[in-house]
Amino acid sequence: MADMTNSRIRPETLHAFCVAAMVKSGLREADARITADVLVTTDTWGTFTHGTKHLRSYLRKARAGGIDLQAVPELIGEGPAWALVDGNKSMAMAPSVMAMDLAIGKAKACGIGYAGVRHSTHFGAAGYYAAMAVEHDMIGLAMSNVDANMTAPGARGSVIGNNPFAYAAPAGEEYPIMLDVAMSAVAAGKIYAAQALGKAIPENWLVDDDGLPATDIRDYPRVGSLLPMAGHKGFGLAVMVEVLAAVLTGAAVTKQVRPWLGPTIGELTDEGHAFIAIDIGAMMPVTEFKARMDGMIREIRGAPKAKGSDRIYLPGEMEWERRTDALANGIPLPPDVLASLQGLAEDVGLEGL
Amino acid sequence: MADMTNSRIRPETLHAFCVAAMVKSGLREADARITADVLVTTDTWGTFTHGTKHLRSYLRKARAGGIDLQAVPELIGEGPAWALVDGNKSMAMAPSVMAMDLAIGKAKACGIGYAGVRHSTHFGAAGYYAAMAVEHDMIGLAMSNVDANMTAPGARGSVIGNNPFAYAAPAGEEYPIMLDVAMSAVAAGKIYAAQALGKAIPENWLVDDDGLPATDIRDYPRVGSLLPMAGHKGFGLAVMVEVLAAVLTGAAVTKQVRPWLGPTIGELTDEGHAFIAIDIGAMMPVTEFKARMDGMIREIRGAPKAKGSDRIYLPGEMEWERRTDALANGIPLPPDVLASLQGLAEDVGLEGL
């Protein structure tokens, strides 16, 4: 671990390691670079649950036949402001970046663009794709359905995924606004973390197979369903993502989506994704928009603080601050991510970080 | 109240009354019909907090100078897939319907369309505009910023509106999916209702001016701020609506938006709205999309029920069932709506319903 200082790792070192692991596994270098960029950027934001930690599982899934590293994503339809991409069972970051690029190009020409993806799988952090739009002075939205892991008001058991939804918008001197949320009260990752530590969870995270609050989480995810955030609101927004990302794209819907790991590791999950880009400059001078964003951000940040609070964070502000630190000082990878990367190195016969 | 049976009123009777009240107040008949359609449709859904009950206040605001009944909404910019409308202080339903129609037209040509509105005011229920897309076999999104009435994690006092967000999507034999939600844990209307009844409210609805749970609501909205739904998630989604509906359109942002009633009744609120339409037929045969929607809806509805639940409602299902009943048997207007309409009749010198 020669490049680490204070248990930190340089982003470019981590990126090179990830590319090497993917290329050694048989993925084209261009797609390996795209995938590494998605995962390492996510780690720089401190969103370690969705970053390079997953690469070992993606490649394990590829070896099991659930991802085809030879597959090439394909543009199967387009119009002035829309496009549809078939992931063809490829590593999901390739069709996702391709689709967001298409949405951005369509938005440049028309003002707004939509691109959908079908026959895809776990695409990492939705926020990465939303943030791509920001580099083009656009507003970006990104979303995906996932396997049904969440219940609905009145239901017992899972009926729909806790479908992630992200957006990002550029500011001027301030960091871009960015939000990446799942439609459940908490992400499944928090439950796995509690599980790993043998901790109990609050009553509003999970229901058991009777639809009652689950506190014994030893058998999750075999037993238990996530609760939607804000009840019918989170459920209703999960349905919106399902419609835009899966019903409309031809991907698998709700219970037809396969979990990406576990017994179905060898199968295509057949998730769908949706990406929307809106070109700010078509509607308003970009400098004016950014000044308006800065004004809003500063007004909210400067508002009176609640008792016990000394700061109000705008959406994405914590992530961009962590990224600034990570680019300057290295990414402080937590032990579980390091362990996963070491395991990956052994899996594919690389020297490790 | 000749048309009422069992305290119900025919939608067309209510519509005619509303048109008459607006025309008598000086609004063009075409815009009066548009506004009445928005408000009466909302009542047929049972969303009485956002329907004809507000008409008295809209016209009171017009008399005070906060809405200009002579104003004509204006298309001030457009491209292949986008449009921008200046409400010019008009009754907000006119520029809103105009903008959603523009978004639908752009989507027909390009696959997706965005239309923004600025210099507008309270536009009623966002769900109405989203549902307009469904009649064109499109998916519709509609949203608005409102005056800052909601706090943020870490803040004391209001920093942003509980900005409403709605979407709708057509199905085949099933009702369309439709969701219309505010980004607060509960809508302000629920607090006004508790206030009117002298009831206490749960701890997670409102914070007082110290940022602590408010249970004494006698001075709301002068004292107290709504809590976002699901904490930072609801706050972050409210910021998204603010960006798409206000920062991008040139409308007032956050604290610059004026409350539509109260001391600022005589001023333009300067809210902004955003509408997006997505043309299903561009991407997939409409019959196939609708069959996929029906499949998803039936799968979720047919899922095992939680203990104590005998039904799972899809988003919008309750509203469409109420509408079916209202069209057949009349709208069961609650006493507060009837009282408001009677007051309106007196205000403008009409005979009443």
How would you describe this structure in keywords?
alpha+beta; 11 helices; disordered N terminus; globular; seven-stranded mixed sheet; homodimer; two-stranded antiparallel sheet; Wheat Germ Agglutinin (Isolectin 2), domain 1
Question: Most extensive interface, residues per chain?
Answer: A-B, 79 and 79 residues
Approximate strand percentage of chain A = 5-15%
CATH class of one domain in chain A, please? Alpha Beta
Helix content of chain A: 25-40%
Q: Helix tally of chain A?
A: 11
Q: Name the assembly state.
A: homodimer
At CATH level 2, the architecture of one domain in chain A is 2-Layer Sandwich
Total strands of chain A:
9
The end-to-end span of chain A amounts to: 5 Å
Return the CATH topology of one domain in chain A: Wheat Germ Agglutinin (Isolectin 2), domain 1
Helix and strand content put the structural class of chain A at alpha+beta
Summarize the helix and strand pattern of chain A as letters.
HHHEEHEHEEEHEEHEHHHH
Which term fits the overall shape of chain A? globular
Average pLDDT figure of chain A:
95
Structural Rg of chain A:
20 Å
